[in-house]
Each structure stands twice: as C-alpha cells, then as structure tokens.
Amino acid sequence: MRLVTLTFLLALLCSLPLAAQETHAVPAEQRQSVVAALSEFLYGASISDAKAHEKFWAPELTYTSSSGTRFGKPQLMNGMRNSQPTPEDEVTAWYTAEAIELKALGPAVILNFTLVSTDVASGERETFLNSGVLVQRDGHWQAINWHATRHADSATTNR
C-alpha cells in the first residue's frame, strides 16, 4: 500500500509541470496583435525590407527552411542589412497568410498558418505550411523558432 501511495504521489508530482504547460486559446486582443505583427512582417518581406526582418526575428532565432537547412538570425540577415526596400510597383511576389491558427503556451504563442506567395505577373500562388513560436518583447512580437514547409499540393490551395 505504501508503494502504491508513493507511486501515485510521484506520478502526480511529475505531471504537474505538464499540466502547467498545456496550450490554451489566445485572447482576442492578443490574437489581433499577433496577426497584425505577422501581416506587417509579410508586407515587409514582400518588399524586401530589412527593418521588417530585423524587428520580427528574435536574436536567438532558429529557422528551418523549406529546403531543409537550419540557421539563425545572423545568416538570415546576411546580405539584407544594407539593402533598400523594393518599391511596391517593382515587387515580384506578395506574401500573405491564410488559415491562421494560434495557441498560447505560457508567455509564448504558437503560430501555424499557410503562407501564400502570389506572383505579380502571373497571379500564380505557391503555398507553404509555416509554424513559429513567438514571444512579445518591447511591445512587439518576435519569432524565436520558425519552420517553413513547402505545401505538398499547392493546387488544392488555389481553389
């Protein structure tokens, strides 16, 4: 009996940290600010604005690209720091987000969405399944982890 009680208490103690880390719904105001940050970033990415990248990516970023490479913010920013944004009328593809899902996990937000790259000339869409972990710092959201996966069947998202 003593062993059963001890085992139960040990199991209970071990499960407490897990219970504390369950995801939950993101409050409407927080959702609005995360979606606004994502939209602002995607606009900046569309015009190749280094400032948008600098603001959105956290210093400790881990980025896993759709081509299967993993790197940090310094590598991502390499070559962008001194570049000028592209004028809107010269943009070749616009990036937007669809099917946005958010989950709160402590102070972080888990972001899942479909990234859509729309070619300006042809109107063709290419889609990626992206996910990230964002934290709020100095009043704005930053991605500390990001994963981009090329959508298996882009044709299904063009409907």
Would you kindly provide a written description of the structure presented here, covering whatever features stand out?
InterPro entries: DUF4440, NTF2-like_dom_sf. This is Nuclear transport factor 2 family protein. Keywords: Signal. Residues 1-20 form the signal peptide. The protein has helices at 2-20, 28-46, 50-56, 73-77, and strands at 57-64, 70-71, 93-105, 108-119, 125-137, 140-150. It has 159 residues and is α+β, with helices and mostly antiparallel strands. It has a single domain (27-157), classed as Nuclear Transport Factor 2, Chain: A (Roll). A six-stranded mixed β-sheet has the order 2-1-6-5-4-3. Helix 2 packs antiparallel against helix 3. Mean pLDDT is 88; it is low at 4-10 and 155-159.
